[in-house]
Design a protein that fits this description.
Helix 4 packs parallel to helix 12. It is built from 20 helices and four strands. The protein has one domain. The strands form two sheets. It has a two-stranded antiparallel sheet with strand order 1-4. A two-stranded antiparallel sheet has the order 2-3. The longest helix has 28 residues. The termini are far apart. By secondary structure, it is mainly α.
Length: 468
């Protein structure tokens, strides 16, 4: 990676502003939309589980909706920060915890050992890593939890003479594909099937079948890029971006027993996280508590000076300030649309044309619509509650089974999570890795085109075979 920092940056074919500038521009665009579009809403009612859902066919314009002033752009930011506080504080806390863990040298010692295993087996490294992220996301709905492992993966890739874009490609493409073709994600598949009145986990066989070729497309994209960068560091999309460089150290600390025990504590933390998410329904508050427990265990094992441990914690948290800010600004966009009462107007307007085309094209239209709506409602379960009550009845009218409608929702939510800048988890991961959004956009756009084509074909085949 040392060579990468000296390489001549490639001239970008697309100039995208700084991520924070992009967020502000999108906030302004959202505010303008509240002035142009008519305010409206669907009626909402609780389902059997007490969750509020849209009632299809009840959209009506709102006459007395407030007109948001320009200074709403200022007041919405602190509100959005409060709304996204769980993610923001999670980012700060895991940054601090990882600062403590890094100070022990355990991570670098482990990286040194892993280099001996993967130095000459690039394809196996990319495949195994992507598969791991994909399985955890597909089965357990994990995404925000990966923020804790960005730094370790970036450093490991740097040691393998790969760039940080490869590291984040492995992570984000792995979890994005995992979400898109999941057979049991409790936060997307099971929620959407519940709303569509389908048997939980029904239709799993088709999702498993299409998971193989779609995962292969994602793997080929990341591996091809990694191979190019390893052969010629000047081809790196983050060449010249200092914040995205992770130069490998010349030597690695030895693996001592205290460092082994710290790594064992990290492994136990991951196991506890998975069990907590899947069996107990834990979310960020509980996960943050588990990471704080890891910090305590690390201090007890490595026995650093308490003042040094405190400094390491604060330094680790401080490094993630920019990431935390981006998470809050991303939340501001959807909050503006909600305040202006135009979010349901957008959903209603985009859904109407689907009833005018054949079933197979309607299914593809649902996929594209869900992808677009993910820009405004980046929460997977939130998008299900907002759109599935509308998509399921539309599918009934045009001959698209509700199972296909759920699959279209999965593709739209999962795949677009890898590119929409309103996705707080994506922006957090990019921020942790120091990758500007414009560089990431250039990396991920070709894959999004491939996945859109593959997803559309999968949906058309599902309609033709009567998938239900």
């Amino acid at each position: 990676m040392a060579e990468t920092s000296q390489a001549t940056p490639r001239k970008p074919w697309l100039r995208i502003p700084h991520t924070l500038v992009l967020m502000v521009l999108m906030m302004a665009a959202a505010l303008i939309m509240t002035w142009i579009l008519p305010a409206g809403s669907f009626e909402m009612e609780p389902n059997e589980a007490g969750r509020m859902m849209v009632v299809p066919g009840t959209y009506a314009e709102v006459e007395d909706a407030p007109t948001l002033p320009v200074w709403h752009l200022l007041s919405v930011v602190p509100r959005a920060m409060a709304s996204a506080s769980d993610v923001i504080f999670f980012v700060f806390l895991i940054g601090g915890v990882l600062g403590v863990v890094r100070s022990t040298g355990a991570i670098n010692a482990a990286i040194g050992g892993m280099l001996d295993q993967f130095r000459d087996r690039l394809a196996l490294f990319v495949l195994a890593s992507m598969f791991m992220f994909g399985v955890f996301s597909s089965a357990f709905g994990m995404a925000a939890e990966y923020l804790a492992f960005v730094g370790m993966l970036v450093v490991l890739c740097g040691a393998l003479r790969l760039d940080s874009m490869t590291a984040i490609g492995i992570m984000v493409v792995g979890y994005g594909v995992g979400y898109g073709v999941s057979f049991m994600n409790p936060f997307t598949v099971m929620v959407a099937q519940d709303i569509a009145e389908l048997q939980p986990l029904s239709g799993w066989w088709y999702r498993l079948v299409i998971a193989v070729p779609i995962f292969a497309i994602g793997f080929h994209h990341v591996y091809s890029y990694a191979r190019r960068v390893k052969a010629d560091p000047s081809k790196s999309l983050v060449a010249g971006v200092k914040s995205a460089q992770a130069p490998a150290p010349e030597t690695y600390p030895p693996m001592t027993w205290p460092r082994r025990l710290v790594l064992l504590a990290m492994g136990a933390t991951i196991v506890i996280l998975v069990l907590g998410v899947t069996l107990q329904g834990w979310w960020l508050t509980e996960l943050a508590a588990v990471f704080l427990g890891l910090a305590v265990a690390t201090i007890l094992i490595a026995r650093p000076q308490l003042d040094e441990a405190a400094e390491s914690f604060i330094e680790g948290a401080a490094q993630l300030t920019a990431t935390a800010l981006l998470v809050g600004f991303a939340r501001s966009i959807s909050l503006i649309l909600e305040d202006g009462q135009v979010l349901h107007t957008i959903v209603n307007s985009l859904a109407a044309p689907l009833s005018q085309v054949p079933a197979s094209l309607s299914a593809v239209g649902m996929f594209l619509l869900q992808s677009l709506l993910n820009l405004f409602v980046p929460s997977g379960s939130g998008q299900a509650f907002a759109t599935m009550p509308i998509m399921a009845p539309i599918g009934d009218l045009v001959g698209v089974s509700r199972q296909v409608a759920v699959l279209a929702y999965q593709f739209g939510d999962g795949f677009s999570n890898m590119i929409v800048p309103t996705n707080a988890v994506l922006m957090g991961i990019l921020g942790l890795a120091g990758i500007p959004y414009d560089r990431w956009f250039r990396f991920i756009l070709p894959l999004m085109i491939k996945l859109t084509i593959a997803g559309s074909l999968a949906l058309m085949i599902a309609v033709w075979i009567g998938y239900s």
